[in-house]
Amino acid sequence: MDVPEKILNGPVLNHIECLRRFILAFKNERQELEIRLGRIVGKDDGMRMKMDAVAPIVFKNLPADYKFESAVDSEDFRKLKELFSKHLSEKNEDVIVINEDGRETYEGNVLKKVEKKIRTEKLDIYLPGKKYDVRLVLNEEKETFKQASKKKTLVKRIRKRETYFIEPYGFDFTEVLVSGDRDEKKKLEVEVEVFDSEKLVSGNFISLIHNFNIDLVFK
User: What positions does the domain mRNA triphosphatase Cet1-like occupy (predicted)?
Assistant: First the structure.
């Protein structure tokens, strides 16, 4: 990362304060807050970012040659899911069709809702000592008239999801088949949604970001 790029889009060193401000924005605006597990990887080689750090590093904007990939390995998907084996869960299968008009959600071939999801803010967090990095996303969702669009499908997501509830969180474990113009791939996604901003405690949320993960084992 060159000097101008580092100044404009470099990491935020005081990550705790940055996270607290992010949480405050969520509480004030009543938006949807998601935590996604994945990896910050190079766009060319797909390798995870490596930084000489012992504390988490927060990026408001990733360097131009990196991206966040929201997915986990199958064994880690199983391990994380097992943590909630004694909690209540809800299963759901649906199909998400994304086009220029928004997101259409289908259940059993029946259109359930059409919405526009607008990302208002995001943070990417590099977690040294952990297998996965984290993306925090604030979204604003607006439901529109329930009618299928005639626009071309950009992305189609066939999902099988199980959600475990521990107030104020929903822990989503999703098996998804993603298809676009050129390819089709299966992914395992792990996300946490915050359902009740009034019951969100900053300290607990920051702890969750650090600890809901897989530790790296150094040999």
Answer: 95-194
Query: Pick from 211, 198, 199, 131: which is nearest to 166 by CA?
Result: 199
Stated as kind and residue range, the H or E segment containing 29 is: helix 15-29
Q: What secondary structure letter does DSSP report for 49?
A: P
Between CA 200 and CA 203 the distance in angstroms is 9
* Cα–Cα distance, 97 to 161 (Å, whole number): 16
Distance CA 70, CA 39 (A): 7
129: left (phi over 0), alpha (psi -120 to 50) or beta: left
CA angle 141, 81, 47 (to 5 degrees): 75
pLDDT tens, residue by residue, 113-142: 998 877 778 899 999 999 999 999 988 777
Report how far residue 111's alpha carbon sits from residue 94's, in angstroms, rounded to the nearest whole number. 10
Domain ranges, ordered by start, for the chain: 15-211
E-only strand ranges, the chain: 11-12, 32-42, 57-59, 66-69, 89-99, 102-107, 110-126, 133-143, 155-166, 169-179, 184-194
CA distance 121 to 98: 20
Check residue 20 and give its pLDDT: 72
Q: Token digits for 113?
A: 């809702």
CA-CA-CA-CA torsion sign (214, 174, 37, 68):
positive
